[in-house]
Amino acid sequence: MNKKIIIFISVILLILSIIIIILNIISLSKVLERQTYYASIIVADYGGFDVNGTAFTFGGVPLGSSSERKLSVKNGYDFPIVVNIIPRNGMEQFIQGRQEIIFQGQERNISIVATVPAGMEKKKYEGEIVIEIRIVK
User: How far is CA 60 from CA 94, 109, 110, 115, 129, in A?
Assistant: First the structure.
C-alpha cells in the first residue's frame, strides 16, 4: 500500500513540475506590448526630413544615403525587457530589424535607420514598423 501512495505522489509531483515548466516557457515568450506604426521614405535626388510624432516618416533620401529616426523607450517594468524593431510591408528593403535590451528603470533612445540601396526607383515607399516589447529570455 505504501508503494502505491509513493508512486501516486511521485507521478503527481512530476505532472505539476512539467506544468510549471511549460507555463514558465510560455510566459518568457509573452509579448507585453505591440504597436504598429506607419512608415514612409521618399527615394529622391534631394535630402529632406519630415517631422511626425506618430509615424516613422524618413522624408527624401538620395540613393546610397540614409535617414535616422529615434524611438524613446522607458522600461517601467520590474524586469528587463527586449524591444524588437520589425520592419514590414516594404520597409524591410530599407530598415534592418533589430533588438535592444533595456533594464528595469532605464530609458533609451533607439535609432531606426533607413538606408536607400543603389538602384532603387525614385518614388515614395510606404510600409510599417512594428515595435514589440517582450520579457528578456
Answer: 13, 23, 21, 11, 18
Predicted TM-score of the model (pTM): 0.73
What is the Cα–Cα distance from 132 to 35, expressed in whole angstroms?
A: 7
83 with 109: CB under 8 angstroms? no
What type of residue is 115? T
DSSP string, 106-117: -EEEEEEEEE--
Angle at 63 (CA atoms; ends 61, 67), nearest 5 degrees:
35
Question: What span, in angstroms and rounded, lies between the C-alpha atoms of 74 and 82?
Answer: 11
Query: What would the pLDDT profile of 96-110 be if each residue is shown by its tens digit?
Result: 999 999 999 999 999
Separation of alpha carbons 92 and 131, rounded Å: 14
Query: Element (H or E) spanning 49, and its range?
Result: none
